[in-house]
Amino acid sequence: MVTISVNDTYTLNNGVKMPFIGLGVYKAENGSQVKDAVLAAIEAGYRHIDTASFYGNEKGVGEAIRASDVPRDSLFITTKVWNDDLGYEETLRAFEVSMDNLGLDYLDLYLIHWPIEGRYTEAWKALEKLYDEGRVKAIGVSNFHRQHLEGIFAMCRVKPMLNQLEYHPHLAQKEMHAFCKAHDIQLEAWAPLKRGGLFEEPVIQQLVEKHGKTPAQIILRWDLQNGVSTIPKSVTPSRIQENIDIFDFELSGADMEKIDSLDSNQRMGKNPDNFSFDE
């Protein structure tokens, strides 16, 4: 493993550089809670903030960006179009609402949140238009499995640059990781810590003892050494700081194999293959 630092980046398939780690803001309340979390993250060294229209906190994220001393062009901002807004014109309108909420002139990464059959290909055409116009520097998807990505490949002019999936040691998504690698699509982890559901695993505890790190730091380091970008969520400044302090140690090959052994295809969120989006 080549030594990595907080300033290192992944290069997406269009040449855009994206930070290894970002702050997720799912369930962070709009207003002071999300604003303070984003400001704490930027102060701690984060340069990637991941939100979504569905989260209802884009305005607070935008307020934090404007209040920060870090220049806009040094930040990487992601948001996502929600299921109700999939379609060509619908997605274009949703994008404008998100941009108004964020108060931004351009977006670094725009994602389709879920693969709604019969609608996501039209939404992808809208993302291509936004990309062509320079409104978005990179475009991608979230919760897309192989068949959904193949649906994009069959009609796209611009290939997805990133796929954001539930990813953690209990759900290592090995087949999807290999498929994304084969198509030069960056994999990104949502729920990388499984909401703390991995912290008491004996393997994780052994590595906590070995490295003098927290369970979260062990797991997030595993993400990065697997080449997966990661967006742990927190609104607590101390945990936000803890989650980014993962660049001063390295997991050995044997350590990585031990964590890999925890994979049990255990999903915390909905499965994109059988989730009813009418729920």
TrEMBL record:
Keyword Disulfide bond applies: no
A Pfam family assignment: Aldo_ket_red
Matches recorded under Gene3D superfamilies: NADP-dependent oxidoreductase domain (3.20.20.100)
Region of interest (Disordered), residue spans: 260-279
Annotated NADP-dependent oxidoreductase domain residues: 22-263
Database matches in InterPro entries: AKR, Aldo/ket_reductase_CS, NAD(P)_OxRdtase_dom_sf, NADP_OxRdtase_dom
UniProt keyword Zinc-finger present: no
Alphabetized PROSITE patterns for the sequence: ALDOKETO_REDUCTASE_1, ALDOKETO_REDUCTASE_2, ALDOKETO_REDUCTASE_3
Protein name (Swiss-Prot/TrEMBL): Aldo/keto reductase
UniProt organism field: Salinicoccus bachuensis
